[in-house]
């Protein structure tokens, strides 16, 4: 089991909590569940490139995971771009595995369509990290900082109701687009936008067991 985690600049967004801290919480939940089952857990962090500092080869050592979680929770993403995803296969086992991709997926659909076929040998769970403050809790009138879902750039704008409604529509359309892309590769996404509850993955996998 691997967790592939987005370390790009858009993951520094803070709404109800920092996205990167939420990612660390999710990685911890996955890792500890995997290790309790007696399986090995691996981790790869990516942004514009992949650094050896953010690679953990499959392990059952809890100390390695504990250190990773602490570093990840306190990490300050600054690098833009996610081209490191194209090198993921160089750092993973060839045999089929369970892969969680943890990201806000604020990058181009063209890039996503280029990356997903490279992971077709695995069972892939896209974990989409959004925050209601990115699109749902924007002001009717006033300044607010947001993440542009098309570019991943953080910007501050003066909002009026029409602009707020346009942003909400843009995010809902983005959700539809992502779902359609993942469906092409039989990789149903798990959207998390109201904080993390460990039950979310139980419910995610349960929907397929009863289908």
Beta-strand content:
15-25%
Whole-angstrom Rg:
17 Å
N-to-C terminal Cα separation, in Å? 23 Å
Mean pLDDT over the residues: 86
Instruction: Provide the succession of SSEs.
Output: EHEEHEHEHEEHEH
Shape: globular
Low-confidence stretches: none
Strand order of the largest sheet: 3-2-1-4-5-8
The helicity comes to 25-40%
Q: What is the count of β-strands?
A: 8
Structural class: alpha/beta
- What is the number of helical segments per DSSP (H or I, 4+ residues)? 6
Largest sheet: 6 strands, mixed
What does this 3D model show about the protein?
This protein has 211 residues and is α/β, with parallel strands linked by helices. The protein contains six helices and eight strands. A six-stranded mixed β-sheet has the order 3-2-1-4-5-8, covered by helices on one side. Helix 1 links the parallel strand 1 and strand 2. Helix 1 runs antiparallel to helix 2. The protein is globular. The two termini are 23 Å apart.
């Amino acid at each position: 089991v691997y967790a592939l985690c987005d370390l790009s600049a858009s993951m520094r967004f803070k709404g109800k909590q920092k996205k990167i801290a939420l990612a660390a919480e999710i990685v911890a939940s996955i890792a500890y569940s995997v290790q309790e089952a007696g399986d090995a857990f691996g981790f790869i962090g990516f942004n514009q490139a992949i650094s050896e500092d953010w690679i953990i080869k499959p392990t059952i050592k809890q100390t390695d995971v504990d250190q990773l979680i602490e570093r990840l929770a306190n990490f300050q993403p600054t690098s833009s771009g996610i081209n490191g995803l194209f090198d993921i296969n160089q750092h993973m086992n060839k045999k089929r595995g369970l892969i969680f991709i943890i990201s806000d997926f604020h990058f181009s659909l063209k890039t996503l369509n280029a990356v997903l076929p490279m992971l077709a040998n695995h069972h892939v769970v896209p974990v989409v990290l959004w925050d209601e403050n990115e699109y749902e809790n924007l002001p009717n009138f006033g300044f607010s900082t947001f993440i542009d879902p098309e570019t991943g750039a953080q910007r501050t704008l003066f909002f009026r109701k029409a602009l707020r409604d346009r942003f909400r529509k843009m995010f809902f359309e983005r959700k539809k687009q992502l779902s359609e892309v993942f469906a092409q590769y039989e990789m149903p996404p798990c959207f998390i936008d109201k904080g993390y509850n460990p039950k979310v993955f139980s419910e995610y996998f349960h929907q397929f067991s009863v289908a």
